[in-house]
Known about the structure:
Layout: H1 7-17, E1 20-22, E2 34-36, H2 38-57, E3 62-65, H3 73-79, H4 81-84, E4 86-91, E5 98-100, H5 101-109, H6 111-114, H7 119-128, E6 145-148, E7 152-154, E8 164-166, H8 172-176, H9 179-186, E9 192-201, E10 216-226, H10 231-249, E11 257-261, E12 273-281, E13 284-295, H11 297-306, E14 312-313, E15 320-321, E16 324-331, H12 332-343, E17 344-350, E18 359-364, E19 375-379, H13 386-398, E20 403-405, H14 411-421, E21 425-429, H15 431-437, E22 439-444, E23 450-454, H16 458-467
Parallel strand pairs: 3-9, 19-20, 19-21
Antiparallel strand pairs: 1-2, 4-5, 4-6, 7-8, 9-10, 10-16, 11-12, 12-13, 13-16, 14-15, 17-18, 21-22, 22-23
The protein binds glycyl-adenosine-5'-phosphate.
Amino acid sequence: MNTSVTMDKIVSLCKRRGFVFPGSEIYGGLANTWDYGPYGVELINNIKKTWWKTFIQEREDMVGVDAAILMNPRVWEASGHVGSFTDPLMDCKKCHERVRGDKLLESKIGVEDVVKLSLKQISELVHTHKIPCPKCGACDFTEARSFNLMFRTYQGVVEDSAAMVYMRPETAQGIFVNFKNVQQTTRKKLPFGIGQIGKAFRNEITPGNFTFRTREFEQMEIEYFVKEAEWKPLYDGWRESMNNFFVQTLGFKKDKMRWRQHDDNELSHYSKETWDVEYEFPFGWGELWGIAYRTDYDLKQHTKFSGEKLEYLDPETNEKLVPHCIEPTFGVTRTALVALLDAYEEEEVSPATDVKPADVRIVMHFKPSIAPIKAAILPLMKKEPLAGKARELFAQLKKNFMVEYDESGSIGKRYRRHDELGTPFCITIDFDTVEKDDCVTIRDRDTMKQERIKLSEVKEYMQRAIET
Length: 468
Ligand code: GAP
């Protein structure tokens, strides 16, 4: 039996248990859109809360913003996205499938070499290698051309070019355009950073792999402003913080993570040095987060295009300077996908016999701090006085934790459901609780061990487990 995690298993668990549903499902869906269900939204919110606490609230050198998604289109001219935020698009002449030329080539010449190619070279190689269309199998593509990934929409009642605005393709620019507002109102001294969480939109040519690459997604980004001479040690410090966030804070498996540096041809138009944090997905290693040294590119570009001087007055030297910027960037939705993949386990609870197949439980080992539900309150039976006592505990815990009351089905089935939801604790109220000892049984999700503790100690017990 293959017990390893696959994308299909995760997609199926997400639908079955209410983490992620296909978007607009009752209308036949809308390609590559996904809706987060009751447990998915808790997971996402916990990841965002943890990120905000770690990188904004617990640090003295960080503050947050929440900028508008729609921005003046000149922002995107200044940032370079109008000119450079493109992918090489090719059309199959037979079935009209649209594909990314570089992605077609990856299986033939390797990912690292593909990023170095010009549009002309991509076209030539796709033709010489006779790469077939993934949809119809024909080997007849148009020449590769640049396709801008920004979504456009119209602001106001007139749909003409004057009213055209872009849906932001990254949250970063909302930070750069507010640099002066934030620095002046908070009086922060260099080095300091501004963080933001929010939606971003990219008209990806080949979205896919479930929520890995979608056209609408969410980011958590930091722009950390420094003096030019100081960028390197601070950059390395941020890489260390990203490591800690992955391993300690989110509790992901260390051996599933690696760092990969972008070579010169792969660098974005604004970056002098970029590293990706990669995760080993079931489909191979892929980017999870990134960190770029954006130099003074963005602040200088916005100064040029807006006419507003985005400078910093050094209080010690009285010198005016344009800060340089280090950008640690995190995908929210991609982190949630990794949380799901990383937590998944199929565990043989009892081996197969001649008459019975093996009993296998699926368990999601989320770190308790990001688990959607922290505890399930289960009366042993759906009758009084057990149900009443369980409801009492539920009402009490609900003030502090996301907990669920569950009284239907056998206790075994309820345990299994909560194993799949990744609920760290199942708390059972039985006859002894009400008649004898005022204690409950707490079952640990990972070890399945049960212990009896006093009702009055449950809250503290959970608090301890969630904080570690
Ligand atoms: N401001 C820099 C920036 O946007 P990026 O590497 O293009 O850099 C940052 O994106 C992060 O956003 C990625 O590491 C990834 O986690 C996430 N991301 C990017 N495109 C995505 C997509 N189409 N779907 C889901 N997540 C995406």
